[in-house]
Amino acid sequence: MRNPIGKKVYKIHKWCGLLAGLFILVMGLTGSVLVFNHELEAWEHRAYWEVNNQAPVNIDKAYRTITSQYQNWEIRLQRFSDNPQETLIFSLRRPEERLMVFAHPANGTILTALDSHKTITTWLLTLHYSLHADLTGKILVFITGLIFLISLLTGVITYRKVIFRMLLFRVSFSRKTKRSFASSLHRFVGVWALLLNLLMVITGAWISYGIMVNGFKAVGAPNKPIASPPLAISIDQALSTLREQHPDFQPTYMRFPKAEDQPLTINGFVTGQPFYYSQFYNAVTFDAKTGALLDVKLNPAAETTTKLDSISHSIHFLEFGNWLIKLLFCFVGISAPLLSITGFLLWKWKIKATKETHQRLRPGSPKMVSAK
């Protein structure tokens, strides 16, 4: 690499990879598993995931049961449908606590309540976005994302002359030595996963920035629990009204009022909307006292920053796609640790080779004496 600028870019690429290597390893592996978070949740909670029931779904009964047994909790409904066999899953929140409550879809009885922090998916998510280190971890994850982004961009510059040749299989994969094998693996994985890695890193950094900012805000915020009050309206009737007036809206999530003067908010997908918009940024609000439909906010009409939030969440959390798409992004998640490991090995072997060369050339060394 005779170009001095190229040498500097390569050094930046090398040191960015080394500095962020361990964190990239953790985030890549957890990310590749979290691609299947819905399937993982269904497996983990299979004992409560479904019930033998044919009676109509009644969310009102379940909500009344929850508010009577769990007072001073903010309540959300994270899973519901018209399927009478699918249990209702409520998310209960306090500043330092999270509960995952499963309720019978028809009679509203509580089947079980779990500490969300102890579930596999939540534990992995916390590791992925904060390394289980609170605000410090959130800052480290955000910085790691930026360093990894720089590493990818400098990698593009470093290997720019062979990228298209590798994509067209015009560069051979060397297996002659362990170093040439690691080098080939590093280049091929880096090139083939480049675009998707850039996509995941950029969206992940954007989300991580928001999480970090919220973490700073939470430091000085009052640590008081917020209670979702009982509702004067029928939740099931609100859903019926939504289906009648907006049949293209597919509800998937509910945020109940945190105070008596706040509305009931229902999030969901909209038929015909681009796949890259998140379900959580389409919102329909209802008056919690009268049941009147107040407002409908959809992704295309949102402000630029809100759109960026929506697109980042949809892509990074993979709210779209089938098993093939998920497997592809799982490979992308694994590719980051592979790049980190092979990059570290190449650096280690290069240092070792340099030391051996210096020893051979040192005056008085056996090889120098024999050469004379």
UniProtKB/TrEMBL annotation:
The keyword Calcium does not apply. It holds the Pfam family PepSY_TM. The chain crosses the membrane at residues 12-36, 139-163, 184-207, 323-347. It comes from the Bacteria. Keywords: Membrane, Transmembrane, Transmembrane helix. The keyword Transmembrane helix applies. This is PepSY domain-containing protein. It comes from Adhaeribacter aerolatus.
